[in-house]
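Onboarding guide, step 5: your first structure request.
Type a short instruction followed by the sequence, for example:

Predict the 3D structure of this protein.
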Amino acid sequence: MEINQLKATIEAILFAAGRPVTKKEFILNLELSEEALENILSNMQEEYKEEKRGIEIVKINDSYQLCTKKDLYESIYPILDKRNRPNLSNAALETLAIIAYNPQITRAEIESIRGVSADACVYKLLEYGLIEEAGKIDLPGKPMSYQTTNEFLRMFGYDSLEQLPELPRYKIDENQQIVIDELIEKTETPEEVKEQEDIIKNINNQ
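The system replies with structure tokens like these:
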């Protein structure tokens, strides 16, 4: 099958599926190698960008999905979805971040980190499909654990959880104040040291 026909076929599969299509599915049905498939999809992604199309091919772990561009959301949502628009509070976003950085975390562990009940936030994130149950943990009471979903990756524009921003390294000093090692280690001049000390003071005073 020549390249343009392959691209058309891949586009048709993604459009008809309406869901993430795995690389394995493509490889089995199109009889392509993984390298050839990834090259074609990468090329298609670039073409969509250059042509300023209203759709894009999004990679989610080992799958690909045809999606509308995020910056067109305001025009699309009122027409296609009559439900209340997703609205995540700061508490829900904090809970989502904790789960993203700690896959298979239990509700009790989330509450231990945040210091408050996580019931409402977990329920809301489950409702929006941003997290899912990840199985019961081998602990007393067999508590349920949670992890983020492909919808989370798609919504925030990540291919996988490995693309999450790296968290700064910190420790608590003898005065129970936050000391961020990463900020200190990267400084080289007295001016930079002073600047970073001011940052740390601001964090500690919050």
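Each response can be followed by summary notes, for example: Strands lie at 21-22, 55-60, 63-68, 105-106, 131-136, 144-148, 170-172, 178-180.
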